[in-house]
């Protein structure tokens, strides 16, 4: 009963009946069950993190200094990789910001964490995404890299220069990195089909 989180035997029987009827568990004897092939398939599917999501969450410093990087690199890189870029500051809402952040990260396929400006919120959002098993793509403007926390320096990080050629290079590197890790996104596949 404890393994099924059942409160009593009647509830446990109902759970086992459901699992057997859905093909996830097979009955071996009156008290012995085993995971059926359908159960193994279901467990494998649970390991996937938002495989149908088209959203790429961008955690970054929202400032006039970083806005050109958003417009010329982050946003187009995610779009060209076949995903929809998302920034929390561009979403109208009346809820608590942390609730919105958590909900949108949960809806996302991946997260881009730009460490430029050394923003605590970016580390928070990237940490939450990692705890959910989402891929995190780390970036940082080159002159800010010296301030990156020591415990995130072991991650691959695209360092970029804040000029037009540097932002173009960031866009290309980020796009190819996303596609290499996740494949072409569903939004990109839909565009190619048109």
Explain what this protein looks like in three dimensions.
The longest helix is centred in the last third of the chain and has 19 residues. The protein is of the alpha/beta class and 194 residues long. It is built from 7 helices and 7 strands. Helix 3 packs parallel to helix 6. The model has no long low-confidence stretch (mean pLDDT 91). The protein is elongated and about 70 Å long. The strands form 2 sheets. Strands 4-3-5-6-7 form a 5-stranded parallel β-sheet, with helices on both faces. A two-stranded antiparallel sheet has the order 1-2. The chain is 45% helix and 16% strand.
Task: Describe the structure concisely.
By secondary structure, the protein is of the alpha/beta class. Helices cover 45% and strands 16% of the residues.
Number of strands: 7
Structural class: alpha/beta
End-to-end C-alpha gap = 52 Å
What's the average pLDDT?
A: 91
Spans of at least 5 consecutive residues with low confidence: none
Strand percent estimate: 15-25%
**Rounded radius of gyration (Å):** 22 Å
Helix coverage percent: 40-55%
Count the helices. How many?
7
Q: Which word captures the global form?
A: elongated
Spatial ordering of strands, largest sheet: 4-3-5-6-7
Largest sheet: 5 strands, parallel
- Element order: H for helix, E for strand: HEEHEHEHEHEEHH
Features:
alpha/beta, five-stranded parallel beta sheet, two-stranded antiparallel ribbon, 16% strand, 194 residues, elongated
